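Re: the 206-residue chain
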Amino acid sequence: MRDGFVSDVHGASESLERAIYVLQKAGYDRLWFLGDLVADYPPDPAETWKCIKILKDASATCILGNHDVVSYLMKDYPLKWFEEYMERAKPLVRENGSVYAHMGPGWPITKDNIPSAKYISTKEIAAKEFLKSEFDIAFLGHNHEPRIFGMDGTDVRFLETGEMKLDRKTRWIVNVGAIAYSRDSTPEISYALFDHITRKLTVFRG
């Protein structure tokens, strides 16, 4: 089983299409969208609708993001198609030891509530998440930069992204990065592919 991941699109429909095209060529069985769909700087219904259609055409499973909920509560998109998207998108998904979420493995987002939580951006914050929640691998967005944390016993390690094998003896937090507004040293978009059989993770840039 191979999962493709995109996150934090913020209405960047062309970049989303490019990322999905690359992932399709690499080959995936399922596509996950890990939250923050809306164009909200400022609201842009046309681009947001394009992103919803792209994800729907790709049969993506969609997770709610904090910006999606803010736009919903502020009524930036008082439209039926956005209401339907918000009903369809999930707070988070737990499956066979894996967690698919936006902010964190223990932070489900609903259309009426956004958890107050920090970014999982340091080893210290990651260590707390490993202790709070039960999971083998958590796939996340929200940070706008790809990061991988591994915990083996009580040792938490920050690992460089790229292409690597995630061993089964270690628990993992994988942030797949963002399609829009990259916050690391490169402005290139970031997205990922994970093979649950071989345990190979690939983080793509650009």
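The chain is about 25% helix and 25% strand.
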